[in-house]
Amino acid sequence: MAEVNLDGIGMTSRRTRERxxxxxxxxxxxxxxxxxxxxxxxRHIFLDEALAHRAYEDTSLPIGYSQTLSQPYIVARxxxxxxxxxxxxxxxxxxxxxxxxxxxxxxxxxxxYSVERIRxxxxxxxxxxxxxxxxxxxxxxxxxxxxxxxxxxxxxxLSTAAPAVLPRELLEQLGPNGMLVIPVGPDGxxxxxxxxxxxxSDQFTTLVLExxxxxxxxxxxxx
Length: 223
Ligand code: SAH
Known about the structure:
The protein has helices at residues 9-26, 32-40, 72-82, 100-106, 119-131, 168-172, and strands at residues 61-64, 67-69, 90-94, 111-116, 137-141, 154-159, 174-184, 190-197, 204-212. By secondary structure, it is an alpha/beta fold.
């Protein structure tokens, strides 16, 4: 991947990025591929210039339209969960947002399909992913509550927005042994769930990872 250096921020960020990696390891993230992906993905380019200097803090940050770029710890935790039962080839992401989580996935799996309901966010994300030279990504402006049926089934699905109740369509688009990593629940009571299809059956196993705070999964699209 090309090294991106925007007005010196890239230089500062190499050191600060390393500090972030140490912090993630302290918090229990141990998958080296995931840590490497975070180390090698500049987070500052996914933020507006005014916030870029805070890119390597372990905190969520606003990206406009009342949406947020997830905290690095959460990105790491979800990605680690997604890969915990082995490598995944085709992955669907619901909620492209800034495209940061998308970029992390691009460096870890063969093909990333990512859907976003707010068009201007999707367009910015597309530019950034192009800047980083990720060619294994397919973006679509749509309501991700329905997944992306034509491209399914997926080996894994990751949602970065929280439905109050799990959408049936996402479970249906999981292939054999497919895994869904998703925050579920009403505002203030969300938990991060890891749901696995058992073989090619219609049985699913759910593991609750931790309490989380995500923006809600909202139906419909914005142009
Ligand atoms: N992964 C993103 C997180 C963005 S916040 C990042 O790293 O920046 C969650 C995103 O989910 C928002 O951009 C929001 O617009 C989007 N979203 C919410 N409901 C959605 C839906 N039904 N379909 C697609 N995207 C949705």
